[in-house]
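Field notebook, page 586. I keep forgetting to write these up properly, so this time I am using the form the group agreed on. The chain and the ligand, 9G3, are recorded exactly as supplied. Prediction of the bound pose follows.
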Amino acid sequence: MEILKMSELYVPTVKEDPADADIASHRLLLRAGMIRKMSSGVYTFLPLGYRVLRKIEQIVREEMDAIGSQEIMMPVLQSADLWHESGRWNDYGPELMRLSDRHDREFCLGPTHEELITSLIKGELRSYKQLPITLYQIQVKFRDEIRPRFGLLRSREFIMKDAYSFHADQDSLQETYDAMSKAYGIICDRCALEWRGVEADSGQIGGKVTTEFMALAESGEAELVYCDCGYSANTEAGECIAHPSIYDVPAMEKIATPGIHTIDELAEFLDIPASSTVKALSGKDSQGQLHVLFIPGDHELNEIKAYRAIDGFELLTDEEMLSFGLHKGSMGPVGLPEDAKVVADRSLQRIGKWVVGANEEGYHFIGAELGRDFKVDAWADLCVVNVGDACPQCKCELKGARGIEVSQVFQLGDKYSRSMGATFLDKNGKEQPFIMGCYGVGVSRTLAAVVEQHNDEAGIKWPMSVAPAHVCVIPLTVGDDEVFPVAENLAESVAKLGFEVVLDDRNERPGVKFADADLIGWPLQIIVGKRGIAEGKVEVRRRRTGERSDFSIAAIPELLSFAERNFERMADGGVAVFDSLFKFDD
Ligand code: 9G3
């Protein structure tokens, strides 16, 4: 393949950190001359950035094709009619970019394609014999984020692979859903991403079943918990098993707690851990019925869970609390209004005595005994899971991490096929709505996630599988007739082995070349200098580990042919193969 030349490549590297870039991938992709911001949340991919993007797209394409999905290309421009049919035109606010054509007909720039794909197959796929089928595209999406930030991680225009599957029944959907989930893990592995698949809450769209694929990164917006046993979950949805501690006193006692309103104040006042106190929250259900919820003092209420446990649940405002005669900051289960429903987090079943408000301003109870002094009408999983809570699978302590959601799989059921009247004839000749699944990979977001996980203070450390090129040959001098021809020949011979090679043929000082090579992040550098070639040697440097070794020029082809070319398909993006290079001493 053609050798790239730094003197010809448009790669405008920048020394200083850009002002508004506050995470590594945003900063480094700008400094390495791989992307440029055109307007808020809208980017151009420059030559090297685009080479990486296409490699990631190709990995996604291979894994989609490998499970029998068929690639199509749908339009970005979507008629509003489709969104009226699905009933979603008014579900979205300004995030949905709307526009009108010259005939004043309404359109939107596609943020996703459920409507479009359903209308595409409606009327075409008529029989169960034609099912299942999965179609996918890799295309630009538009979502008018209120606050685009973190570069490609939250942009307004981004590249997504979105796939949609159509089934006659749930079992068939489950099969595709599982195959897609497996493929997503392979895609993350091939991009050398450390990832966790987490249960997520698909509140806003269709079905209930969804898994998010999180690339672990401190800069990630998502909070997740995970366990060495393999369990992991989004803190928004994961099951919470807290272990509250009991403050054991012989009898229930009402104590004056002047000015004590928060859990921390109460815990400090009594000199007990927050996990020994019980936090109360008040809300009402869709009928306006008062519900008082009790959770361990060291946890937060998960409103999505409360909403699931109590129909139409919403928290009371301060004035509503007053109207129910409740005292914010000292609510408890003893002495509540008669019709109040008491709902408690399951983990409180394990402590029979509670430290809790006395429903009187400035007073709390200690030793309030479950059953004797108060009742609980219902037990539920109400809390946001905390790091350190028990793993629902193996009971070990859960660890915490932050993650970047790079992909997600959804079971949609018949949400779109029903609303849009997309049906097929089942084997009994009966019209049935398709059962659907949808699956998305954030391709440009994956690129940023790779940089978040593979960088150091000098720049990016691209895994072989997605690097803009694999080897950078750096002659220390260009004018001189000894060094440069050796570098050129070496570049040729390495390219003949099937590697993508870039030759830094610029008339720049070595320091500039090294800094750019480290910033751009070529996985391998081969440095050619006068002293070295006097002994017939060159220095090979590994960007990932900084290891350097001298090898005879003759050994290079042997050295590199060792790393078979197809590292793109390797599960770790080719990292191990290049680690082995340096076991090989000349
Ligand atoms: C909109 C806007 C933003 C949106 C959506 C619709 C997210 C929307 C959910 C999905 C679900 C899956 C197929 C690929 C994988 C994700 N943000 N979602 O539906 F109009 Cl403005 O997109 N779609």
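OBSERVATIONS:
- The longest strand covers residues 399-413.
- DSSP finds 15 helices and 32 strands in the chain.
FOLLOW-UP: compare against the apo run.
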